[in-house]
Specification:
Length: 1000
């Protein structure tokens, strides 16, 4: 049966291709995991994006990295599961719904909890899958049949199980503690939900008079209204200025309360006045000092950010209004010393977009120390988990050591409602700080417990608060696999293999997962933690909503294709964990780096089209395994297996960027630019059939291998080409995703051949560069003379001269020994003997002449005459035959006339270097005679003109940058642009000088 000749369109069109294969993969459940399949498991659980979110560049970057790992290990034969899902984003959804209600003139309390939650579920059903659909556009190879949501039934059961177990073990308790409070959402928020912003504010200095009338102390604060809750003033006990005051009291202005002066090592004597006000209920550091010194805790704030009854005359005022009024009162009473401009950091609620308030509140807490110590034990004894890069291990460890009890309750309705029921019948029908409660897995169990404890008439009300989102996220690696039930998925895929995440949530998510997993499963939830960096904008700045400098990945996908964006993000990584910078033109919404990756896709597409057009309709399997017959065949197979080894080593060690760059260089350079060009002549119909078939075999074999190597990085284009190359049936096609990754054959690796070929490539490249510099027409054939002292180099050039002639458009090629320019030929040997004989005759003649001359010299008058004649003749002979090269050559010709018969030379001697252009490769001198090929003087004139222009530009920029007024006063980016331009002009001038020097 004759195979159908495969055909790819002339242009690669990514958009329809990518959509086609994304649909194919999902509809055919290509990535559905099977715990019964066997094989070593490889499991990744997706860092769940917020259900309210939309795809940003961080999501695209992280997903691309994970997909490379998952696709690679799947092709390596691992039993692979990448489990997708989303987080319910408690605060984000809650805030969004409250904003909607506000536009309708309603509050959640008017709507009621049940209707509020129904509205939230309806929103999730309609819009909650938005980010999931965007993730699909990235072509991620997840098992969509196992998609999870942190509020789905199974995960909700896991949350309740974890809470009740921890409570029963004494590791969850309810108590009063200082929390981050968001007045806008009226909820406690976690540290990760706080965004520190630098603001231009003020530092107010006030006098607090000593109660004994002996003077005052001066304190400074950025939050004057909190002085209404001060219960102490602190100094460092070693501070000579104040230590005599420790134990005394001051009278707090406005309230007239007496508060003590305490000594505490926490106080920095060098900061401010060295004397600080202490407000234990409204500052975390003051909270700790208050506990150490048994100070009262006075809360002056309501949950909506207004002041309460403890604020006296300022009760009911908004915190910022009260601030102005407190300052005015202190100034009027003479306690205001001064006001300073002060730039400082203010914590803002990420969701509420208002400054948070440290607030004393009764909340639910996890006793963190036993959980953190268990995680530390795994780290110190087993180095588990293993962080990549290793430097993050210390950061993770330090965090575990410093962890304090974790506030897990949130005053919201969207989320996991805390499984605690209050016996409100014991506190007049209200939930108060002292209301007794029971913890249970469901309402029925709670009733049973409460009746046993409080009697048949007990009235119960479930805690209205919900759990911190991070509580359910902390269970994610094992709750998604079925825990607390002992499912087959849990038995097969847990612990997971790799967690890929950003460094900014090591503290908030990674540590919570390891603590929860260590406690509930007795294992760390993942073997490796690969910490990636950030995607920075075109200026190297972190992308943020506040700065408005984000780059929409979907815009770039629409312009260049998914594969191009994915490949760019991975290829830009230089070393695990490093930030990457994405080139972007905001005026045009274009990215040169992503465009370069699209060009790479087009290069591969065109190369594949050429290969398939020259296979006579045969697939790689039909052509069979290649056996190299020529030097270039052995070279490309060696390079191919080197790249297999290199790529696998890089990915195995999380060097994903290095792997991507190595593939780029091999595919674009070695395969497309060199091997394909080298074998074109062998593919002609009139070429030697045996050589032609070997070329076809190698082209097909290496192309299929390239597609498999590149598939984890660019899955769509590789699938499309592979389907055509292997001629998969339209009805039941296989997929490249499930093919075996290329296997390394070390016997194919030949470093010596690679070295030889590298020299040939460099030589061809040098000839091409010299042709370009001399502006030789592309189709014109030239003469090239090689001179080298190295016999190995000359041998390589001889072996590869056919390649050099073909790819560098060389007609005549000469290879000469540079170190042996005076090589003796047979004719020259005769001349040498004549020379030796002449020297001997000359010596004899000189001796005879000396004897005769000496005898004549004894005769009066004759001696002096002969001396004068001899001296004169010697001077004439030297000036006539010895002073110039042409005269010496003329003398030699007279003494030894050339014979008419020339001995044949084994190697043609190189032409004169005059009017030639030259370059160097290793120790090889490459000379191209230009006579009759180009107008060398015109080339020289053009180069000199360009050099003058570059030197003038460099001189102008140097003068500009030498001007202090410009350097000091011009914008930094303008100065940097000038410096960059100077460096470019200097570089260009040096290149032009080199070209002029090469015109010998």
């Amino acid at each position: 049966m004759t195979a159908t000749i495969p055909n790819l369109p002339s242009l690669y069109e990514p958009f329809s291709t990518e959509a086609k294969w994304q649909k194919f993969w999902e509809e055919n459940q290509i990535y559905k995991a099977d715990p019964n399949r066997g094989g070593e498991p490889y499991c990744v659980v997706i860092p769940p994006p917020n259900v309210t979110g939309s795809l940003h560049m961080g999501h695209a970057f992280e997903s691309a990295l994970i997909d490379v790992l998952v696709r690679y290990h799947r092709m390596q034969g691992r039993n692979t599961l990448w489990l997708p899902g989303t987080d319910h984003a408690s605060i984000a959804v809650h805030t969004m719904l409250e904003k909607q209600l506000k536009t309708e003139g309603k509050t959640r309390y008017e709507l009621g909890r049940e209707q509020f939650l129904e509205r939230a579920k309806q929103w999730k059903a309609e819009s909650g899958g938005f980010i999931v659909n965007q993730l699909r556009r990235l072509g991620v190879s997840v098992d969509w049949s196992r998609e999870r949501f942190t509020l789905d039934e199974g995960l909700s059961q896991a949350v309740v199980e974890a809470f009740t177990r921890l409570y029963e073990e004494g590791l969850i308790y309810r108590g009063e503690y200082l929390v981050n409070w968001c007045p806008a959402s009226q909820s406690a928020v976690s540290d990760v939900e706080v965004e520190n912003q630098e603001v231009n504010g003020n530092l107010w200095h006030f006098r607090y008079p000593l109660s004994d009338g002996s003077g005052y102390v001066e304190v400074a604060t950025t939050r004057p209204e909190t002085m209404l809750g001060d219960t102490g003033v602190a100094v460092n006990p070693s501070d000579e200025r104040y230590k005599h005051l420790i134990g005394k009291t001051v009278t707090l202005p406005i309230t007239q309360r007496e508060i003590p002066i305490i000594g505490d090592e926490f106080v920095d004597p060098t900061f401010g006045t060295g004397c600080v006000k202490v407000t234990p209920a409204h500052d975390p550091n003051d909270f700790e000092m208050g506990k150490r010194h048994n100070l009262p805790f006075i809360n002056i704030l309501n949950k909506d950010g207004t002041l309460n009854a403890n604020a006296g005359e300022f009760q009911g005022q908004d915190r910022f209004v009260a601030r102005k009024n407190v300052i005015a009162r202190l100034e009027a009473d003479g306690f205001l010393v001064k006001v300073e401009d002060y730039k400082h950091t203010v914590p803002y609620s990420d969701r509420g977009k208002v400054p948070i308030e440290p607030l004393l509140s009764t909340q639910w807490f996890v006793k963190i120390r036993p959980l953190a110590d268990r995680a530390l034990e795994f780290l110190d004894q087993k180095n588990s988990p293993d962080f990549v890069p290793q430097r993050w291990t210390k950061v993770y460890r330090d965090w575990l050591v410093k962890l304090k009890d974790w506030c897990i309750s949130r005053q919201l309705w969207w989320g996991h409602q805390i499984p605690a029921w209050y016996a409100v019948s014991e506190t007049n029908g209200q939930i108060a700080d002292n209301t007794p409660f029971v913890v249970a897995k469901n309402a029925e169990s709670a009733w049973e417990k409460a009746k046993a404890q409080f009697g048949e008439n007990v009235q119960l009300e479930q805690d209205p608060d919900v759990l911190d989102t991070w509580f359910s996220s902390g269970l994610w690696p094992f709750s998604t696999l079925g825990w607390p039930q002992q499912t087959q998925d849990l038995a097969t895929y847990y612990p997971t293999t790799t967690l890929v995440t950003g460094f900014d949530i090591i503290f908030f998510w990674v540590a919570r997962m390891t603590m929860m997993a260590g406690h509930f499963t007795g294992q760390m939830p993942f073997k490796d933690v690969y910490i990636h960096g950030l995607v920075l904008d075109e200026k190297g700045q972190k992308m943020s909503k506040t700065k408005g400098n984000g780059i929409d990945p979907l815009l770039l996908i629409d312009k260049y294709g998914t594969d191009a964006l994915r490949y760019t993000l991975v290829k830009e990584v230089v070393g695990a964990g490093q930030d990457i910078r994405l080139e972007y033109d905001r005026k045009k919404d274009e990215s040169p780096s992503v465009e370069a990756s699209r060009n790479f896709a087009n290069k591969l597409w065109n190369a594949a089209r050429f290969v398939m057009m020259n296979l006579d309709g045969q697939t790689p399997q039909q052509l069979g395994e290649p056996i190299a017959t020529e030097l270039c065949d052995r070279w490309i197979l060696s390079r191919y297996h080197q790249v297999i080894k290199q790529t696998s080593n890089y990915i195995d060690n999380y060097g994903l960027g290095e792997a991507a760059k190595g593939l780029y260089e091999f595919i674009w350079g070695d395969f497309c630019d060199w091997y394909i060009e080298l074998v074109k002549s062998r593919l002609q119909k009139d070429a030697d059939p045996a050589s032609r078939r070997v070329a076809q075999q190698i082209l097909a074999h290496v192309l299929e291998g390239i597609l498999k190597l590149l598939h984890p990085f660019m899955p769509h284009i590789t699938e499309e080409i592979w389907q055509t190359l292997t001629q998969q049936p339209a009805t039941t096609p296989q997929t490249i995703s499930l093919q075996t990754y290329p296997q390394l054959n070390t016997q194919q690796i030949a470093p010596e051949i690679e070295t030889q070929f590298e020299l040939l490539i460099d030589t061809i490249r040098t000839i091409r560069n010299l042709r370009a510099e001399a502006e030789i027409k592309p189709g014109a054939k030239v003469t090239v003379n090689f001179q080298s002292e190295n016999p190995t180099e000359r041998q390589i050039l001889t072996l590869g001269q056919a390649y050099i002639k073909d790819l560098a458009k060389v007609e005549t090629l000469t290879i000469a020994d540079k170190s042996n320019q005076a090589t003796v030929t047979p004719k020259e040997s005769v001349r040498g003997l004549k020379t030796i004989g002449l020297i001997i005759v000359a010596i004899v003649f000189t001796r005879l002449a000396y004897t005769v001359g000496y005898a004549i010299d004894e005769v009066p008058i004759f001696g002096t005459f002969f001396e004068i004649v001899g001296l004169g003749y010697t001077a004439w002979f030297a000036s006539r035959y010895l002073l110039s090269a042409s005269a010496r050559k003329q003398l030699w010709t007279k003494l030894f006339p050339p014979t008419t018969k020339q001995a044949p030379q084994a190697t043609p001697q190189p032409e004169s270097a005059e009017n030639s252009i030259a370059g160097v490769v290793g120790t090889i001198q490459v000379v191209i005679p230009l006579k009759g090929v180009v107008d060398i003087e015109a080339v020289r004139a053009k180069l000199e003109k360009s050099l003058s222009k570059a030197e003038a530009e460099a001189q102008s920029l140097t003068s500009r940058l030498s001007n202090p007024n410009f350097v000091d006063k011009a914008p930094k980016d303008v100065v940097q642009t000038a410096r960059d331009a100077l460096a470019e002009a200097q570089k260009q001038a040096e290149i032009l000088r080199d070209r002029l020097r090469s015109l010998v």
